[in-house]
Design goal:
Layout (H helix, E strand, L loop, with lengths): L17 E7 L3 H13 L5 E5 L7 H4 L11 H4 L15 H14 L6 E3 L2 E8 L4 E9 L5 E13 L4 E6 L13 E3 L14 E5 L3 H10 L5 E6 L5 E4 L4 H9 L2 H25 L1 H15 L2 H7 L12 E4 L2 H8 L2 E5 L2 E5 L2 E4 L4 E3 L2 E4 L3 E3 L6 E4 L2 E2 L7 E2 L3 E2 L5 E3 L8 H21 L2 E6 L8 E2 L6 H4 L7 E2 L11 H9 L7 E5 L22 H7 L2
Parallel strand pairs: 1-2, 1-6, 2-3, 4-19, 6-23, 8-17, 9-10, 9-17, 10-13, 11-12
Antiparallel strand pairs: 4-5, 5-6, 7-18, 14-15, 15-16, 19-20, 21-22, 24-27, 25-26
Length: about 525
């Protein structure tokens, strides 16, 4: 809504041949990195390349009914730009406006180049530069390629594919006489008025869709194989709204963020230290809102709290729709699709006119780009993540990886602030190369340590974390904020001066590709 007019937008043809920093992705992470770069390193030239034809990342892509944040906006928003909306759990369109307004007001939008997909990049040690391959498609559909050189590369492209969602094979799909829709590709003209809708899934997307579609649908069923943990949160934060009326905006924002960080961290710590109590507290909210028989049948997850991401229910809207009779839950295993709906393995048939497969995402590392260092392909699954922000053996490059138990932006901003400490350090000391080198003998763990199916399907292809600082990645903003601020830039980092005569850089230890990994939580504890 607040982007440059389409005729004034830049594309691949407008990209400079060379920049100091190239940022990949124009969502929350990429815009945040550009803001920190402009604030701390105004003398560095940069450009942002965005594969889509619009900015906003996730919040531009998802258009299904009711799409909203699953974290509070006081921690999902940028710390340097307080959230001023009335809702703590905000609608997708409001978040998109916030991202684009930030880019516009900080003059970042003029550095974004749309329709530019990074398909590969090669680091040359002798040249101390990345050469990035950009693919673009013009209005006629013709595909072209061009190259951009950069001294530093930051990948803020998220962790899932925009081109495809996870849609498991269901027998009999062709027999179903209604519509089948994946939330990632929601038809703008879909009319579900008076229709029977079945949403397959029990995660945040399903929990959002079900109450949102009851406004027009005849009835909405959430068909789940395994229950999730759901908990009620206020759509509007009374304490936050009160503080904003009596305190200056920046101070109020800081206090509200601290409150919300503390609350979410407390729940996570409780789930790890006293899992039975955490489960009791979460389910007690559900028991207050739903009949006992429904809770007993449909709200008993067979895993611990925070083994998967919790699902926030603003103002209890999901529970209210069940009580009102406009929605219901069915728990069971799918046998096949049939003409009238879905048949379960126990013989029940759930009738539907529309089936929504809210079955998850397809994970993708670094936006799908292939990286090479001095002509040798980087096997990402064999790399260790340095501070959860860089990769072992990969020079002058960083990535944004957020939290699984808190707002993504919290960690994204810490990574951005670390990068804008590293870059001036390299400039001031005339250093042309910074490459993390992993020590031998480290145990490896998953970089995303949750049991969600969409993670477990592909986590083996992702970089690993290690068992010692600075190779751990604790799921704690409080810990990371202190650790990043005090981070020794030279720890396990090898620097070379500008113009150094080298043909290659050290790689360090390789991570095991095996899935037989120590949990990231255990490794983080070992590294303290």
């Amino acid at each position: 809504m607040n982007e440059l007019p389409r005729g004034n937008r830049r594309g691949a043809d407008d990209l400079p041949d060379e920049v100091d920093v190239l940022i990949v992705g124009a969502g929350l992470s990429g815009i945040g990195m550009a803001a920190r770069l402009g604030e701390s390193c105004p003398d560095f030239s940069y450009a942002i390349v965005e594969a889509q034809q619009a900015s906003g990342g996730t919040w531009d892509l998802f258009r299904y009914p009711g799409v909203r944040s699953d974290s509070d906006m006081f921690t999902l928003s940028f710390p340097f730009r307080p959230w001023r909306g009335k809702d703590a759990i905000a609608q997708g369109g409001d978040i998109l406006d916030y991202i684009r307004e930030t880019a516009r007001d900080l003059d970042i939008d003029r550095a974004i180049h749309y329709g530019c997909t990074v398909v590969g990049g090669n680091w040359s040690t002798p040249e101390q530069r990345w050469t990035i391959e950009i693919e673009s498609t013009d209005a006629s559909g013709a595909v072209t390629r061009r190259q951009v050189r950069t001294a530093y590369l930051h990948l803020a492209s998220g962790y899932y594919s925009y081109d495809t969602g996870y849609d498991p094979h269901f027998e009999g799909r062709e027999d179903f006489t209604g519509q089948i829709i994946h939330p990632q590709f929601w038809p703008a003209d879909l009319d579900y008025t008076g229709k029977r809708v079945v949403v397959i899934g029990s995660g945040a997307t399903a929990v959002t869709l079900v109450p949102a579609m009851t406004d027009k649908a005849a009835h909405v069923v959430m068909l789940q194989r395994t229950p999730s943990y759901l908990f009620t949160v206020p759509g509007s934060d009374v304490i936050a709204n009160t503080l904003r009326t009596v305190l200056p905006g920046a101070l109020a924002h800081k206090l509200i963020r601290a409150k919300n960080v503390g609350m979410s961290a407390g729940i996570f710590r409780l789930s790890r230290r006293r899992p039975a109590l955490a489960r009791k507290l979460i389910l007690s909210d559900v028991r207050k809102r739903l009949p006992k028989d429904i809770v007993a049948e449909h709200f008993q997850p067979p895993y611990g709290v925070w083994d998967q991401r919790l699902c926030a229910v603003p103002d209890g809207d999901f529970f209210d729709s069940i009580v009102a009779g406009t929605s219901s839950i069915v728990t069971g295993h799918i046998d096949r699709f049939v003409p009238e709906g879905i048949r379960l393995t126990d013989g029940r048939v759930v009738e539907a006119d529309i089936i929504v497969t809210a079955t998850g995402l397809v994970m993708q590392v670094l936006g799908g780009a292939d990286l090479t260092v001095d002509g040798e392909r980087v096997a990402l699954e064999r790399t260790f993540a340095y501070r959860g922000a860089m990769l072992s053996g990969v020079p002058n490059a960083s990535m944004t990886v957020g939290y699984t138990n808190a707002s993504w932006t919290l960690r994204a901003d810490l990574v951005a602030r670390y990068v804008v400490r590293l870059l001036p350090h390299m400039r001031d000391y005339r250093l042309g190369i910074a490459v993390p080198v992993a020590p031998e003998g480290m145990r490896a763990g998953p970089i995303l340590d949750i049991a969600a199916g969409y993670v477990q399907r592909t986590i083996a292809s992702f970089p690993k974390v290690g068992d010692r600082v600075p190779w751990t990645m604790p799921q704690s903003y409080v810990h990371d904020r202190r650790a990043f601020r005090k981070a020794d830039l030279g720890a396990d980092m090898v620097f070379y001066p500008v113009g150094a005569r080298l043909t290659s850089v050290p790689k360090g230890a390789a991570a095991p590709a095996s899935l037989d990994l120590v949990s990231a939580a255990d490794l983080a504890g070992a590294g303290e």
